[in-house]
Amino acid sequence: MEEAYHIPVLLKESIEGLDISPAGTYVDVTFGGGGHSREILSRLSSQGHLYSFDQDADAEQNILPDERFTFVRSNFRYLANWMRYYNVGHIDGLLADLGVSSHHFDDAQRGFSFRFDAPLDMRMNKRAGQTAADIINSYKEEQLADVFYLYGELKQARRIAAAIVKERASRKQPVSTTNDLLPIVEPFFQREREKKDMARLFQALRIEVNHEMDALRDMLKAVTDLLRPGGRLVVITYHSLEDRIVKNIMRAGNAEGNIEQDFYGRIASPFTPVNNKVITPSSSELQQNPRSRSAKLRIAEKK
């Protein structure tokens, strides 16, 4: 099932980055198809344990039948709460693969891709929260522009937002599907960049729908407290916004990147970066899995 669901990105490099202790306690906050989790489990002894998080009900089809494994159906922003629930005081390592799985892009009805005519949903957790259509039809022009600019880095953000607001005011029915939205925004994208910019627009909506940046900050704050000294934080990012937050946490100990120094001028961060230069996929991996092309791997060790 996992192979069809999602090919794990930077598998060898990320697992090696965890520096797994066979009797340790580990967390995979992005279970998905279970590829990374399977590899972690293969390196644990009977005393080790793995907790894997995923809020998507589809991921439950990939649950691993192993006494050393616990699946947590939840957003990883609640990491601290769940570890407290399971009486886990400290962990030896955490892995986060922040990319959206192939499964989500290929499932037309989830609305993650502009390749299909589908309801504008984009919720990772289909049980709760507002959809992308809710955002398109209810946000004010300034709010929409901020979403497109901050999360999609689109230069035409304000003009796109204005066009959406104007169009929805003239429609009898709400903008509810991919094919409703595309004709409104396509005029703002140059033909040679159309697919790339459309992907950025859909990325921006997905991030807003799922509150991804807030969830990432909450999770990173929690893992900073949970990791025991020598424990590893391993994160795979796919766009500049999340990568900047991860880099700031590892370098400065906070999402904003505000550096504090001690009396001797040493940076007062709870982490020591393991790889000062980001790790990217090899050429062979890129050929096998084109979706990994924007992946960056960062590894840090708790002091």
Blueprint of the fold:
Elements: H1 2-5, H2 11-18, E1 25-28, H3 35-42, E2 49-53, E3 69-72, H4 79-85, E4 91-97, H5 102-106, H6 132-138, H7 141-152, H8 157-170, H9 178-185, H10 194-210, H11 212-226, E5 227-237, H12 240-252, E6 271-273, H13 283-288, E7 296-302
Parallel strand pairs: 1-2, 1-4, 2-3, 4-5
Antiparallel strand pairs: 5-7, 6-7
Helix pairs in contact: 7-8, 7-10, 11-12
What can you see in these coordinates?
The protein is an alpha/beta fold. 41% of the residues lie in helices and 14% in strands. It has 13 helices and 7 strands. It has helices spanning 2-5, 11-18, 35-42, 79-85, 102-106, 132-138, 141-152, 157-170, 178-185, 194-210, 212-226, 240-252, 283-288, and strands at residues 25-28, 49-53, 69-72, 91-97, 227-237, 271-273, 296-302. It has a 7-stranded mixed β-sheet, with helices on both faces. β1 (25-28), α3 and β2 (49-53) form a beta-alpha-beta unit. It is globular and about 60 Å long. The two termini are 38 Å apart.
